[in-house]
Amino acid sequence: MKVYADNAATTRMSRVAIDAMLPFMDTFYGNPSSLHSVGQEAAEALQKAREIMAQHLGCEAREITFTSGGSEADNQAILSAAVLGEKKGKKHIISTKIEHHAVLHTLDKLSKQGFEITLLDVHENGIVTPQQVASAIREETCLVTIMYANNEIGTIQPIAEIGAICKEKGVLFHTDAVQAAPHLPINVNEQNIDMLSLAAHKFHGPKGVGMLYSRKGILLTKIIEGGSQERGNRPGTENIPGIISMAAAFEDACTHMDENSAKVSALRDKLIEELSKVPHSILNGDLEHRLPGNVNFCFEGIEGEALLLQLDRKGICASSGSACASGSLDPSHVLLAIGRPHEIAHGSLRLSLCESNTEEEIDYLLKVVTEEVEYLRNMSPVWRDLVSGKKQFML
Ligand SMILES: *Cc1c(COP(=O)(O)O)cnc(C)c1O
Fold first, then answer.
1. Residue 238 pLDDT > 80, yes or no?
2. Which residue in 20, 49, 57, 174 has a CA-CA distance of 20 to 30 Å to 130?
3. Is the Cβ atom of 70 under 6 angstroms away from ligand 1?
4. Distance CA 69, CA 80 (A)
């Protein structure tokens, strides 16, 4: 059996998204900046895609800038707010310790340019409270950037409340909604969001395309120089097939959000309930404020990457916040931020589901994960020390 349980890394394109894209690769291949009919057909389709995105976000079409993905949107939102802040002598930015690297590394860059960055701690469940944000805001704060939902542990932040505080204090609020987009409702006005990032490949659209919503009146800073595409905010010939396909995928996700969420969260809950029975394990993230498809556990006494390799041999695609898997020496910054010790964070497993996963697949996942955790523990010298009492169990 082959089970893809890594939908937080990327998703398979849906039929709807592929079908929407194909005509714009051959029949309607024009450049929307061209004045002739072939170009104008592309321009019309581009405008329609913008309107579809806007309708489902509760904003205006002209408040949308198409980008190459979530990372670019995050970079542009943060850099734009920094440039605006600097003009007013405001060089303080608030974020959290569990943001995506597209946010954290952009903030690192700004800190080298003299910005002061406050990274808020999160509670053990991975949540930052509106009160924490309120008390961190100062006279010099130009931006609060906090993700809607976390890609590793699935925690959903109280962004509407955070947005309300920012609005009251006159501070720009950006949210990375890349993980939230297919699963949680978004309305930028009701949720007091000034800027928001999305990426198509996280909701069954194509890779290499995303968007930034920015409330009208916010002057964006270009990160690419060139022509006047995207109202001058994002030069470069538009990725028409990608943009059209993203709009189709987003509309599909929004239309089926309730039924998909109900289905996926039932599968998630079964996984969480059963995996909680594995001795010396712990669920990461919050039980209630959690993305429908996210399951993340730490298993004491094993290495996450070893578990991934074993699972892959059995046809299961998953992910881990362990050091090797993340390509650095330290385990996931998110798991460390919620207080997991290094040794425990190394033994993490993330399963991220989507609506095409089946009950049968969940049963297979449960069987294989529990078997492989036991197998790896039986081979592990660390586990032997734990069982013999030479080392103390932490979980
Ligand atoms: C995937 C992801 C991104 C990056 O999006 P890309 O389109 O891959 O650049 C940013 N933030 C979060 C939360 C993500 O999950």
1. yes
2. 57
3. yes
4. 17
Q: In this structure, what is the dihedral angle of CA atoms 304, 307, 312, 315, given to the nearest 10 degrees? A: -120
pLDDT tens sequence across 74-97: 999 999 999 999 999 999 999 999
Catalytic residue (choose from 59, 166, 317, 324): 324
Which of 148, 176, 198, 294 has most ligand 1 atoms within 8 Å of its beta carbon, as the pocket-test mutant?
Answer: 176
pLDDT band at 324 (very low <50, low <70, confident <90, very high): low
Q: Are 348 and 321 in contact (CB under 8 A)?
A: yes
Query: The whole model's pTM is what?
Result: 0.97
Residue the block writes with tokens 């704060």: 141
Assigned token pair, 339: 């207080």
Q: Which helix (H) or strand (E) holds 255?
A: helix 240-255
Name the amino acid, one letter, at 77.
Answer: A
324 is catalytic: yes
Q: Specify the ligand 1 atom closest to the Cα of 10.
A: 1
Fold that domain 15-255 belongs to in CATH = Aspartate Aminotransferase; domain 2 (3.40.640)
Cβ of 176 below 6 Å from ligand 1? yes
Query: Tens of pLDDT along 95-142?
Result: 999 999 999 999 999 999 999 999 999 999 999 999 999 999 999 999
Question: What is the three-class DSSP state of 316?
Answer: strand
Residue 64: CB atoms within 10 Å: 25
The domains of the chain are located at 3-9+257-388, 15-255
Higher-pLDDT residue of 390 and 322 is 390
CATH superfamily of 3-9+257-388: Aspartate Aminotransferase, domain 1 (3.90.1150.10)
Pairing of strands 210-214, 195-199: antiparallel
Is any ligand 1 atom within 6 A of the Cβ of residue 210?
Answer: yes
Q: Which residues lie below 8 Å from residue 227, measured CB to CB, with a gap of 6+?
A: 33, 235, 236, 237
